Amino acid sequence: MKFFTKVNVEDLNGRISYKDKIISLGSCFANEIGAKLKDSRFDILVNPFGVLYNPASIASALERLSSGNVFSEEDIFTDGDLWSSFYHDSLHAEYTKEALINKINTSLKSDSMHFITSSWILVTLGTRRVYTLKKKNIIVSNCHKLP
Length: 147
Known about the structure:
alpha/beta; three-stranded parallel β-sheet
């Protein structure tokens, strides 16, 4: 009985060095690896949208970083006291929609610059399951508890 699939991975052409810019995106493992690299004084941007688990949300984040398209009121929601983004984890929440839009767009500007000048992109996946906001027919980055 075979309980695993053997995967042959070729060596990379090059190694990460201290002069490289790095971005780490994805699951909580991306946070852990990113924190280790940051503690070791690497120039790394760790999960700028917060923890993202599925490939569709990670692809959306990469596209947003690449394009620099700003977030608008269409991209946020409120459910109680806090405003949140469909494209970020709950750590990015704010008490007003203006504060949230300002926060995520200010971050996006600097994060996009880091992204387009990065030599390495580290991506870790957590699941293939996606959550869809039915009324807008969009994939959301996290399972925000909405009615």
